[in-house]
Amino acid sequence: MPPGVAHLHEPPHPPTNAGWTIVGIPRAAARAGVDVIHAPAYTAPPWAGVPVVLTVHDVSYELHPEWYPYRRDWLRRRFYRSGARAAARILTVSEFSAGEIARAYRIPRERITVTPLGVTPAFVPPGTEKPRELPAGVAPPFVLHVGDLHERRNLGVALDAVLEARRHGAASLSLVLAGIDRGVVNGLCASAARAGAADALVPLGPVPEHALHALYSGATALVYPSRYEGFGLPIVEAMASATPVIGSNAASIPEVLGDAGILLDPDDVSGWATAILSVLRDVPLRERLRSAGKARAATFTWARTARATMDVYRRAAGRPGQA
Fold first, then answer.
1. Contact 93, 309 (CB under 8 A)
2. CB hemisphere CA count around 106 (13 angstroms)
3. What's the angle, vertex CA 245, arms to CA 240 and CA 250, rounded to 5?
4. Which superfamily is assigned to 34-118+302-316 in CATH?
5. Which residues of 105-137 are buried (b: 16+ CB within 10 A; e: fewer)?
6. In the prediction, which pLDDT does 8 show?
7. CA geometry: angle at 292 spanning 252 and 165, to 5°?
8. How confident is the model at residue 321, as a pLDDT?
9. Residue pLDDT, tens place only, 235-273
């Protein structure tokens, strides 16, 4: 165990996530004598005896419940809301999400601190990198999407753009999906089959990290037509991997991508097709995007995230000036 880190056995609590959050965490905090609790993923004790810092990446489930057709989603949303309102401080990953959280939960903006995510050095290709072996079934040229496959990720537009690009000369182009299917893959496969281009879609499911590195390195571009993102970590991973990024001009994506990629209306299929073809055929454009992306990705570091997080801990504990 690293120096300065202590372990505490889990105290008795009801054997559910709610039981751990409501009973187990406050008991553990009292036993350990901590100054602050950090709840890193949406749920936090509504009362704890010490200040709680809560991380909320986005509130898509609150503002767009139609994307989450779970039978008890209302209960989850209520639990999330109560934890957020009770927290002393909230951490989130973008200015966009900070505004959404304040609006959704009616929380003063000054209680919310933005701590953008970072990218691990493993995504930064070495200067003399050898080509990495792509997963079975994947062959260039292809555009890539990384992340769970939700309705809000708007992947029908990405597929339609690939199909249009194929009709305009990129006959072997495909869309590769790396991520857990949340209920959209069957419909996408059916759309590709109806277009007579079943090979235009390559759903891989979740992939190991070494395969993900190969996919980023081999892709013509990352395509990210999402309608709602709190941050969009694959954008930063792609930029760090020197992969051009084409993203939607919605939610946090312009904030994360900046001017290092191509931003488009999420519903403009022809615009997406044109952008994909441009990156595929225009070598100077592709190299400009690769260079700009690497420079921007270098500003997203976990060290910066850690420093900002520690500062919030100190403020929550009433020690803002402590080194």
1. no
2. 1
3. 115
4. Glycogen Phosphorylase B; (3.40.50.2000)
5. bebeeebbbbbbbbbeeebbbeeeeeeeebbee
6. 86
7. 75
8. 59
9. 999 999 999 999 999 999 999 999 999 999 999 999 999
The CATH 3.40.50.2000 domain(s) of the chain lie at 34-118+302-316, 122-297
Stated as kind and residue range, the H or E segment containing 205 is strand 201-205
Contact between 119 and 232 (Cβ < 8 Å): no
Look at the block and give the residue holding tokens 């339609």: 160
pLDDT at residue 56, as a whole number: 98
CATH 3.40.50.2000 fits 122-297, yes or no: yes
pLDDT value of position 128 = 54
Question: What single DSSP character describes residue 320?
Answer: T
Cis peptide before 284 (omega within 30 of 0): no
Render 1-49 in DSSP notation, one character per residue: --TT----PPPP--SSHHHIIIIIHHHHHHHHT-S-EEE-SS---S--S
> Could you write out the DSSP letters of every residue in 251-265?
TTHHHHHTTSSEEE-
Report the SS3 class of residue 143: strand
Which long-range contacts link 60-64 to residues 24+ away (Cβ below 8 Å)? 60/152, 60/228, 60/230, 62/104, 62/105, 63/100, 63/104, 64/152, 64/228
Q: Residue 69: beta bridge partners?
A: none
pTM of the model: 0.93
Q: Helix, strand or coil for residue 51?
A: coil
Question: What per-residue confidence (pLDDT) applies to 288?
Answer: 98
Dihedral sign of CA atoms 63, 64, 68, 71 in order: positive
